[in-house]
Every structure is written in structure tokens, then in C-alpha cells.
Amino acid sequence: MHLARFDIDLFLRHHWQKRPLLIRNPWSAWRNPLEPDELAGFACEEGVESRLITRQADRLAMESGPLPEDRFTELGDAWTLLVQAVDHHVPDVAALIQPFRFIPDWRIDDVMVSYATDGGGVGPHFDQYDVFLVQGLGKRRWRVGPRCDSATPLLPHDDLRLIPDFEATGDYVLEPGDILYVPPCFTHDGVAVGGDCMTYSIGFRAPSRAELIENWCRHQADDMVDEDRYADPDLIIQPNAGEIAASALDRMHAMVLEALSDRRAFARWFGLYNSLPKSADMDWRPDEPADEATVRALLAQGVPLSRNPASRFSFIRQGEPELLLFVDGHGFDCDGDTARLAEGLCMEPAMVVDAELAASAAVVTLVAALIDQGSLAFDAD
């Protein structure tokens, strides 16, 4: 599937992170990639993040998965099931990301899939990230309101961040194939119209300033030796011993800035940090380590390599021909043949390695390492 009727440049100029946009079925041929029963099955599995939203009187209640299989037979009217990162488990759902890769991969979070019965929804709320809401099956009415922030009042609720007195500025009914783009912090409320309503939420992430500072500082501090301390060998008597002198503050401020200002080190740290798997508990490693002779033979035969849909691939250029490849929290220094391979792997979810690269010992070693960590596999089909 691809977006046959969608002006990407116009969207980026006028809507991305600026204002919502309704996109009426832009696909060449829309096909719903997942059945409701399959989604319910994932909600019953350990290691899959899921939530069930039900209405009790006038109040929404939330249950976290895994859910018992018979839970769905007990439900009344107007309920919603939400399952995170379904793209990690279903290739056809992962394929929904491909048309939206005009946004850099490092910004992509996952594809959450929701199923709702008539009248089901999660209430008016806002998110801190961009999202494309793709209607897969049935109909959903979306109302979109003004931009909110951390000071916006919320209804008291243990699990849900709901907006009181929601006033919509846009009102749309989405049918299969339609898309609603919602930028960060815009209030929105989706309610299923009729039964068997499925929506695919392609979410994007943006690290907060606090998150970057906290994790970068912790990373740098972990590598520092205990004797790297403030020193003042040029100390002189000051008029008031209770004063923290400007010279002391300048020296300590410089110590902190110096430790945090290494851009090359920051780039390597961020690549590692940003590529950490979303589901840290999932172990995708094969039972047996890759045999380099077998890897070399399969590459020579032109057997395609496929990325694990749950894996995060990205790279940072260090100056031609060197680059840093980041995959699932691991970093690989690449140049020459391995740099070409790294760019190819980051470009598409599957690739055939050309004969010249397949003959490179360094390429074989890198491919074997990525197979061993569960990030890459040969596509036998």
C-alpha cells in the first residue's frame, strides 16, 4: 500500500506539528491488515501491552492486559480494546509505517491498534506526540479541539488523562482508508459509529528536554572518576566566608558544561539511547548463533535480508566514508563496505546484498552480529 493521493511537501509545510488534517482515503487500494479476533488474541498474550476501556455508568474504567480469553464474552456495550506495538508482531501492520517514512525513522514509535464496539472510545484527551489515525474497519467519529498543555485541567482519574468541558473545533466521520493527522497536544475524541471499528494509530516520538538532560547527564556521570572534583589551588582570603564567590561558580559551571558539550560523544550516546527496543522484555535472538560460513553462502546466493519489525535501525555520519550504525541499543562503527551495507539496511526493511558487498568479510561479520542479536534474518521465502 502507498499514499497515491497525498502531497507530502504541502503537508509538511502547512500541517506537520502545526494543525490537524483530515485526509480522505489517499491509498492506492486500502485493505484492512488485521482481523478483530487476531487483535483480541494479542491482548491475551504475556509481553504484549494492552488496555481495555469500558464504561461503568458515566465513568470510564481501564484494565491492563494480558486479559483472560473469556473476558470478551462478559463485556457489555461501548468498550474499546487498545494494543500497543502490533507492528512488532504482524508484518502487514508494520507495512503501514512505510508510507509515512517521509518522517525520519528515529521519530517513529509504533503502531497501536484499537477495536471498539458502537459508542466505544477512550474519552477526550491529548497526547504529547504526533499521530496519524488510520481508519481500518468500520466508522469512527473524531472530534478535534484546541491545543492543550501541562497546565490544562484534567478530570480526576487513576488511569486516563481526560479533558473536562471538551469543545470541538472540528468534527469528522472516518471510513475505511481515511486518515486524521493530529499534532502534539491537540485535544481529540474518537467514538465508534456502529460495530467492528478498528483504528491504526501510527505514533511518533519526540524526546523532551528533561528526558535528554537527565539521561545524557547520567550517561556522562557514569563514566567519570571519583577524583575528578572541584579544585581551587589559587584560593585567596575572601571578605565574607559565607559567600559562594563568582569565581567558584564560574569554575563549577565550566566543569559541568565541559562534561556535557562533547557533541561527538552526545551523537553516539543518542544513537544508542534512541535505538533501544520499545519492548525491552522481548528476546528475539535465535536459538543458535549465526555461522559466518553459512551467512557468506546465503549472501552470495542473493537471499534477501529482512529487518525484525520490532528493531530500530538508524545511523549517524561521522564524515565520509565513516558512519555509526545503531540497532536496538547497540552501536557499530562502519566504513567502506560496512557503511554501504548500513545505509542499505536503514533505507528499506528488506534488501538483497550485492555481490561485491557479499564477498566482504567485514560485511559477513556485521550481518552475523545483527542476526545474533535478533535484529536481522534471512528471508527464506
In short:
This protein has helices at 8-14, 36-43, 91-94, 209-222, 246-260, 263-274, 292-300, 337-347, 355-358, 361-372; strands spanning 21-23, 50-56, 59-64, 80-83, 108-116, 131-147, 170-174, 179-182, 186-204, 305-307, 313-319, 322-327, 330-334, 350-351, 376-378.
How is this structure best described in words?
InterPro entries: JmjC_dom (IPR003347), NO66-like (IPR039994), ROXA-like_wH (IPR046799). This is Cupin. It is a single chain. The protein is α+β, with helices and mostly antiparallel strands and about 375 residues long. The protein has two domains: about 10-205, Cupin (Jelly Rolls, Sandwich), CATH 2.60.120.650; about 290-380, Malonyl-Coenzyme A Acyl Carrier Protein, domain 2, CATH 3.40.366.30. It has helices at about 10-15, 35-45, 90-95, 210-220, 245-260, 265-275, 290-300, 335-345, 355-360, 360-370, and strands at about 20-25, 50-55, 60-65, 80-85, 110-115, 130-145, 170-175, 180, 185-205, 305, 315-320, 320-325, 330-335, 350, 375-380. It is globular. The model has no long low-confidence stretch (mean pLDDT about 95).
Number of strands: 15
How many helical elements?
10
Shape-level CATH architecture of the largest domain = Sandwich
What is the share of helical residues?
A: 25-40%
- Report the span from N to C terminus: 20 Å
Q: In angstroms, what is the radius of gyration? A: 25 Å
- What is the fold named in CATH at topology level of the largest domain? Jelly Rolls
CATH class of the largest domain: Mainly Beta
Number of domains: 2
Broad structural category: alpha+beta
